[in-house]
Amino acid sequence: MGMTPLLEASGIHFGYPGRPVLHDVSLRLRPGRVVALLGPNGSGKSTLLRILLGLHRPHRGHVFFSGRSTARMTRSAIAEEVASVPQHASVGFAWTALDVVLMARVFRQRHPFARNTAADHDAARAALCRLGAAGLADRVFSTLSGGERQLVLIARALAQESPVLVMDEPVTGLDYGNQIHLLHLIADLARTFGKAILQTTHTPEHALASADEVILLRDGRILAQGRPRDLLNPSALASLYDIPPGRLAGFLRDSRMSPGPAGATDAQHFTKTGPVPGPDQAHSRLANNRNNNRE
């Protein structure tokens, strides 16, 4: 845990008129690691993400990127440090997947009227290639399956070339197989490319599958923070989601959501069949399900 954090939030307080939302929230994101943020609806997860992305200023507390406070950074400077993968993205006209990925380069522009260069196009295509999704480049984004769209949105975040990725429920709406592949992909992005990743999820199994650390957020306060295998237990989850512990323990036992054997990776435990395929195979799986997973 000695690595310098790429992102650090310290003592964050925030609220809307008459409605406090976040209370003394602190977290650190380090290179090569995935942090999963869990909490019930209304716990402040989305507001926290907006603060980390520089879209809201905290009322108290600070956000730092590699030691630099966002209070003294421009929007384009923040975009150089952190990229967002939303749950959904609506684009106008008949934009291709490549057009959507190129939007990331605009986020980094310091002039509002700057044009994309050949280097921008190269970076966008390289991002799609890294995910095994080069074949999607010229297809219209609105015709893609849900899983393919998520690949494109992740490629857009990669093309932004920011060291920190913030993902809002990245596997929402995908079928079980696509969820497995994208969770593996998220873990691979952290370990292979050294990204610091924060993802929100409502599903503890997803945190077990891909995260190195979990944060439990309730009523705008952090209840607990630590390793998934230490925190994702009936007692902690019952407190987080206000569920009777006995009922939750029975559900977890029936669904077999429990830590895997010592030495097994979280991804291996989740799939029960060993390591899942890499990005190229992941895209093949997503493409095969195109007709079954349209949004």
Provide an overview of this structure.
The protein has 295 residues and is of the alpha/beta class. It has a domain at 7-89 and 162-243: P-loop containing nucleotide triphosphate hydrolases (Rossmann fold), CATH 3.40.50. It has helices at 45-52, 75-79, 97-108, 118-130, 146-159, 176-193, 204-210, 228-231, 234-241, 245-255, 266-271, 279-288; strands spanning 7-16, 19-29, 34-38, 60-65, 68-69, 82-85, 164-168, 196-201, 213-218, 221-226. The strands form 2 sheets. Strands 6-7-8-3-9-10 form a 6-stranded mixed beta sheet, with helices on both faces. A 4-stranded antiparallel beta sheet has the order 2-1-4-5, covered by helices on one side. Strand 4 and strand 5 (68-69) form a beta hairpin. The chain is globular and about 55 Å long. Residues 258-282 and 289-295 have low confidence and may be disordered.
Q: How are the strands of the biggest sheet laid out side by side?
A: 6-7-8-3-9-10
CATH class of the domain at 7-89 and 162-243: Alpha Beta
* Largest sheet entry: 6 strands, mixed
Note the beta-strand portion: 15-25%
Secondary structure class reads alpha/beta
Q: Pick out the low-confidence regions.
A: 258-282, 289-295
Topology:
Blueprint lengths: L6 E10 L2 E11 L4 E5 L6 H8 L7 E6 L2 E2 L5 H5 L2 E4 L11 H12 L9 H13 L15 H14 L4 E5 L7 H18 L2 E6 L2 H7 L2 E6 L2 E6 L1 H4 L2 H8 L3 H11 L10 H6 L7 H10 L7
Parallel strand pairs: 3-8, 3-9, 6-7, 7-8
Antiparallel strand pairs: 1-2, 1-4, 4-5, 9-10
